[in-house]
Amino acid sequence: MKIFLIYGGKSAESDISVISAFSIQNEIYYDQHEVVPIYINQQGEWLTTGGRTTSFATKDDMRFTIENGAVLVEPTILKEENSVALPCLHGPNGEDGTIQGLFEVYDIPYVGCGVLASAAGMDKIMSKYLFQQIGLPQLPYVPVVETEWHQYPESIFAKCEGTLIYPMFVKPANLGSSVGISKANNREELIAALNVAFAYDHRVVVELGIDAREVECAVLGDTEIHTSVVGELVKDQGFYDYEEKYINNTVDLAIPANIKEEISDKIRRYSTEAFQVLDGSGLARCDFFLTANDEIYINEVNTFPGFTPYSMYPKLWEATGIQYGDLVETLIDLAKTRHARSHSKKHQRIVNEESNGETIKD
Fold first, then answer.
1. Are 220 and 226 in contact (CB under 8 A)?
2. Residue 172, preceding bond cis, omega within 30 degrees?
3. Domain ends where: 208, 235, 258?
4. First CA to last CA across the chain, in angstroms?
5. pLDDT tier at 119, thresholds 50, 70, 90
6. CATH assignment of the domain containing 18
7. Contact indicator for 212, 289 with CB cutoff of 8 Å
8. Distance between CA atoms of 109 and 107, rounded to whole angstroms?
9. 21 and 51 fall within a common domain
10. Which among 312, 191, 309 has a CA at the least distance from the CA of 240?
11. How far apart are CA 208 and CA 128, in angstroms?
């Protein structure tokens, strides 16, 4: 089977994508698959060598290089029988349902969540609305639109300071990996944080900041959903930005997290429920806050979490009993299974429509 490993992208998280793709490339079972790496640069151009690359990526050097040069290709390269797309893309244009829509149009199997789950999971405001509908506990938040911020700043202050207390965290609605996220301890910092977030998106969310541990659970599956052990980001400071997480790699992981069994079970149940309400498929990482009183609050769901050698998602599954290479193979199998099911439904729909047409004619 031919695996189109797609990475890079136009988002602010493209460097992380390069590291993730490099890690996946090294773990794919080459006795079963042929890998065609496709790099999307910041201009949106698709580049490939047509074979396994000599690309490299480490936490010190996150570049894409190919020894014998690359050629520009069109997305139609994906339209090949017996192939699967593996979009190792983080952030907008990769994790938000856009490229998933392209795969659907081309009718090819692809790893990860579908259009709906990707779009809703990527958008922090929409996912909060969905989690609220099924009763998942969340921290208080205020959604803010850029036009309202520029026209009626006092109204925004009234909403935020009337609903929340400092400190607050300000996040772009459609971004991840701590990009564009700031902590605000007062109104002056809130103004600065909003301006930073609006540089990345026209919608942002302002959340109550609390003293809590950050724990995460990995989800894997389709019609049958599996959850991993729960892990924790162990930090010696309140907030880690993009550079600390991915460049300096100063965040330690505790896997499994040192928490009570009943709390772990509840987090895994919440993860399943969040995955289901988004209509998730393939994979996701669900992030939670855990207070000293064992109160659990869902933070967000990442529909294509980091796959670097030190990322939480593959490490959680390794601790649960699935090695990196087997994890990638499972995701490829899930992609084929979902695609086959979708084809079966489409075929049945056509048969039903034809049958109905004959009945009306008779």
1. yes
2. no
3. 208
4. 46
5. very high
6. 3.40.50.20
7. yes
8. 7
9. yes
10. 312
11. 14
**149 and 220 share one domain:** no
Which pLDDT does position 261 carry in this prediction?
Answer: 97
Identify which of 327, 122, 138, 310 has the alpha carbon closest to the alpha carbon of residue 219: 327
Q: Is 331 within a domain?
A: no
Total domains present in the chain: 3
In a domain, 225, yes or no: yes
By three-state DSSP, how is residue 57 classified? coil
Q: What number is the average pLDDT over the span 246-265?
A: 86
Q: CB–CB of 52/25 below 8 Å?
A: yes
pLDDT by residue (tens digit) across 158-171? 999 999 999 999 99
C-alpha–C-alpha distance, residues 25 and 23, integer Å: 5
Tokens of 359: 């009945």
DSSP designation for 142: E
**Does 179 or 124 have the greater pLDDT score?**
124
The pLDDT value recorded for residue 241 is 55
Domain residue limits at 80:
2-111
- Reading the block at residue 344, the tokens are 């079966």
Q: Are residues 195 and 226 in the same domain?
A: no
**Domain shared by 282 and 230, yes or no:** yes
Same domain for 25 and 97?
Answer: yes
**Backbone torsions φ then ψ of 309, nearest 5 degrees:** -60, -25
- 266 and 172 within one domain: no
Please write the tens of the pLDDT for every residue from 260-302. Answer: 999 999 999 999 999 999 999 999 999 999 999 999 999 999 9
